[in-house]
C-alpha cells in the first residue's frame, strides 16, 4: 500500500545518510528515525536543522546493540530499515581493521537478526510491506583493468579490510533472504561526493587543504580511476529501489563519470581559482604533491548501472561539472561545519597520506 513509510535510517548523521534523511523529509511524507553512534564521522551538526522537525527522531546508539535495535523496531512500528551505518574510510581500515569488522559485519548481522525476529511477528500485510535495504559499495568487486564494468553479476573480490567487511555484510544480507525470506534489497554504489562529506575523503580533503594553501597529497601516480556520483542522485536511486525494487535483488548504482584522481584534483583547483580569484594560493594546481601510494590501492572502479536505469527508470541528473561546482560552493559557504566536525572528536590517522 501507499501509506507513508516509517524508516529506521542507520548512520543518518554521516555523509550519505545525512543527505538521505534531508532528501526524504523534504520530498516525501515519511517518518524517519535516525540511529547513529556519532563516531568521528557522524555529527549532529549535519542534522542541526532537523532538531524540531515533526517527522524526525534522532537516537544516539550502536547498530550492534541488540536490545536497543529490537526496542526501536517495536516502539516506532518500523516498516523499513536502511543501513548506512559503517566504518567507511579505506585508509583507516588499513591502520585499524577491528572497528570495520565490528560495525560493518557484526553490526549488520545484529540488524538483520533483530529485523528477522521483528518481521516474523508482523501481520501478513505488514510482513509483505517490510523492507531491509543494505547500502553497499562497488569496492566489493575489486579492481578493474583499463576496460570493462562492474555489474550485478560480477563476482565479489574485495581487496581492502574495508571492502572485505562490506562484502561480508552483503553476503549476510543475501543469506537472510535466501534462508529466512527476509525481504532485503542491496545497492552497490560508486564513489559519492557532495555536501556533508567528512574532510578525510578525496574531494572535501582537497578543498579544505587548498583553501588553507596546504599541499594536496595525491597517492601514487594519480592515475587511479573512480566513477563519481553526486550524493543526491544516489539518494534518489535508493528511494527508487525501495519503491519498486524486487525483494532479494541487487542494484549497482553509478555516475557513468570516470575520472583519474589527477583530473579530479585539477578540476577542483581550477574551480577554486575561479571562485577565489584573490586567494594568495592561486593557481591552486601548484599545491599538488605526489605521496606514497595507498597499500593495495585498487586501480579502477566503474559501474554499469543499466539494471536500475532499465528496471526502475533511474538516471543520474547531476553532471560531474555541475555537481563538483555545487560541492565546492557548499564547502566554501559552510566552513564552520567543517571546523566543527573536525574539532568534535577527531583522531586523525593517515589524514592526507604521506
Ligand atoms: P560516513 O563515514 O560519512 O558515515 C557513517 C555513519 O555511520 C556515521 O554517522 C557514523 O557515526 C555511523 N556509525 C558508524 N558506526 C556505527 C555504529 N556501530 N552504529 C551506529 N552508527 C554508526 O559514511 P558514508 O560515506 O556516508 O557511507 C554510508 C554508507 O554508504 C556506508 O555503508 C558505505 O559503505 C556506503 N557507501 C559509501 C560510498 C561513498 O562514496 N562514501 C559509496 C558507496 C557506498
Ligand atoms: O589524500 C588522498 N589522496 C588520494 O590520492 C585521499 C584521501 C585519497 N586519494 C585517492 C585514493 C582513491 O583512489 O583518491 C581516491 C578516492 O579516495 P577516497 O576518497 O578515500 O575514496 P575511496 O577509497 O575510493 O572509497 C570511497 O568510495 C567508495 C568511500 O570512502 C567508500 O566508503 C566507498 O565505498
Automatic annotation (TrEMBL):
Keywords on record: Lyase, NAD
Domain NAD(P)-binding intervals: 8-327
Protein name: dTDP-glucose 4,6-dehydratase
Keyword NAD: yes
GO biological process: nucleotide-sugar metabolic process
Organism: Thiospirillum jenense
UniProt-listed Gene3D superfamilies: NAD(P)-binding Rossmann-like Domain, UDP-galactose 4-epimerase, domain 1
Catalytic activity: dTDP-alpha-D-glucose = dTDP-4-dehydro-6-deoxy-alpha-D-glucose + H2O
Amino acid at each position: 500500500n501507499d501509506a507513508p513509510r516509517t524508516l529506521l535510517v542507520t548512520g543518518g548523521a554521516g555523509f550519505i545518510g545525512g543527505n538521505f534523511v534531508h532528501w526524504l523529509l523534504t520530498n516525501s511524507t515519511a517518518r524517519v528515525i535516525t540511529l547513529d553512534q556519532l563516531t568521528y564521522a557522524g555529527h549532529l551538526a549535519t542534522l542541526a536543522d532537523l532538531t524540531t522537525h515533526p517527522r524526525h527522531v534522532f537516537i544516539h546508539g550502536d547498530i550492534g546493540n541488540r536490545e536497543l535495535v529490537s526496542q526501536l523496531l517495536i516502539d516506532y512500528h518500523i516498516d523499513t530499515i536502511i543501513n548506512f551505518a559503517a566504518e567507511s574510510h579505506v585508509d583507516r581500515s588499513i591502520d585499524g581493521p577491528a572497528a570495520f569488522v565490528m560495525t560493518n559485519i557484526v553490526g549488520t548481522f545484529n540488524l538483520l537478526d533483530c529485523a528477522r525476529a521483528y518481521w516474523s511477528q508482523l501481520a501478513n500485510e505488514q510482513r509483505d510491506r517490510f523492507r531491509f535495504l543494505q547500502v553497499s559499495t562497488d569496492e566489493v568487486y575489486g579492481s578493474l583493468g583499463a576496460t570493462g564494468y562492474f555489474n550485478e553479476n560480477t563476482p565479489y573480490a574485495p581487496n581492502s579490510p574495508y571492502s572485505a567487511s562490506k562484502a561480508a555484510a552483503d553476503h549476510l544480507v543475501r543469506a537472510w533472504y535466501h534462508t529466512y525470506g527476509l525481504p532485503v534489497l542491496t545497492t552497490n554504489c560508486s564513489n559519492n561526493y557532495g555536501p556533508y562529506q567528512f574532510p578525510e575523503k578525496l574531494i572535501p580533503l582537497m578543498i579544505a587543504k587548498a583553501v588553507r594553501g596546504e599541499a594536496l597529497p595525491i597517492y601514487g601516480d594519480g592515475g587511479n580511476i573512480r566513477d563519481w556520483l553526486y550524493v543526491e542522485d544516489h539518494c534518489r536511486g535508493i528511494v527508487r529501489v525501495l519503491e519498486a525494487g524486487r525483494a532479494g535483488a541487487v542494484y549497482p548504482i553509478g555516475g557513468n563519470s570516470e575520472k583519474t584522481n589527477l583530473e579530479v584534483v585539477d578540476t577542483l583547483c581550477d574551480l577554486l581559482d575561479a571562485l577565489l580569484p584573490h586567494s594568495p594560493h592561486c593557481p591552486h594546481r601548484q599545491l599538488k604533491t605526489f605521496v606514497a601510494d595507498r597499500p593495495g590501492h585498487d586501480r579502477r572502479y566503474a559501474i554499469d548501472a543499466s539494471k536500475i536505469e532499465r528496471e526502475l527508470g533511474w538516471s543520474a541528473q547531476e553532471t560531474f561539472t555541475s555537481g563538483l561546482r555545487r560541492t565546492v560552493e557548499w564547502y566554501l559557504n559552510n566552513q564552520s561545519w567543517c571546523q566543527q566536525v573536525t574539532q568534535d572528536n577527531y583522531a586523525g590517522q593517515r589524514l592526507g597520506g604521506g
